[in-house]
What does this fold into?
Amino acid sequence: GGVFLQMLYDRAVWKQWASRDMTKAAKWAPFSAPIPKATKTVTVVPTSEKKPVAWRYTTQVPSKNWAAPEFDASAWKEGPGGFGTKGTPGAVVRTEWNTPQIWLRREFVMPEGNWDDLKLRLHHDEDAEVYVDGLPAAQVTGFVTDYEPVRIRSKAKDQLKPGKHVLAVHCKQTGGGQYIDAGLVDLRELN
It folds into this structure.
């Protein structure tokens, strides 16, 4: 995508692209990447995209062990995900969040199964940190306008055996819309 945008502004790049030798197309960046395989997304632990999922949450800075499984979040508020402000692109706001930061926790049961490519399913606006049983699972910056798969760090991914776990999320907001919601999906190649 970036090369094509650059072509709109840079005559030299446009001339290079327009005059390239198609017999050597494999050496031209847009054509050298492997074609991505078609996948289907299987929900493992749902987000609040289709049905509300209950989370514990706070907008007050919690103690340092807030993401640990043994942390007692019973004093935190309880509400359905996702959290944000109406009008944020791609958001399904069920609980208003309009402060600079939010911390979320929820218990979930990891089902039995063989997962080909387990990922977080995350919609964040803006920066977010995700933990599984207190272990860092992902850190993302900026914002997205829809739910997207996000790679899970290996130590956190190894933790995801069948049984009970804690998903904990911290999200920061600096301007514009805001939203956070998370779950787990498996990406499977279509045959």
